[in-house]
Amino acid sequence: MKRQFAIAAFEAADLLEGRVEPRYAKVLTRLLAAHAIAEKLTAEGYARALESIGDAALRPTITRNLAEERKHARLVYQILDQLGINEAHADRSMITALKSASFAAPRRFAEHPVGPLELLMASLSLDMTGLLMVGVNYRDSSYAPHARAAEIILAEEEDHELFAATELHDAAARFGAASVNAALRDWLPCAVNFFGPPGSGFTFDCLRYGLKARDNAELAELYLTMLERRVLQAGLAMPRLTPDYPHAIA
Ligand SMILES: [Fe+2]
Ligand SMILES: [Fe+2]
Fold it and tell me: Domain 12-233: which CATH class?
């Protein structure tokens, strides 16, 4: 799929002054609203973790990640705001999407109790996936404000992802391999579904407009390959998934 617009081709003024086809703004705002609420739900999960996890070794990282996820959400809502869409409006546009399998992972983190093992699973399911979405897709966005925000978010997500990788490495010793394997089976389907359905019309538009660089299925594949290597290195079992979206345990 050849992209129609180059990286960072447009600023807010280009859209507001009608220099870009109206459909571009429609697709862009839907993508930004999804990105913003994913960051916000991740922040809510970290806030929950900070309330419930007493472990002094984890709290500094949780505190920092919480502040950074709040900042990521703010950055993306600001971009929407420049286009005349406030946070409440953006969130309202996501009501149906939030109920889909794509949002099961961030909702789970935001809405359920978080212990140290859930924190690790959430980080593998949200930070590691987020790093791919932001680093592969949004960094090369044709919408310059989103590309710039992605650079800032990416630098911080690299640390979040490193935290998840380190924690996973030690997880079998800390929680017992059986518990971690069970948690992986429990979380992996929703983590992979977070990338969204393959080959959707919406993603087709995103690719065509240069708002995404890769299809959801390609990112999901990349994620599974990276995660499998780490899971096996940590002496754990990589769960098998059904081939079609929404994925479940095979
Ligand atoms: Fe983030
Ligand atoms: Fe993160």
Answer: mainly alpha
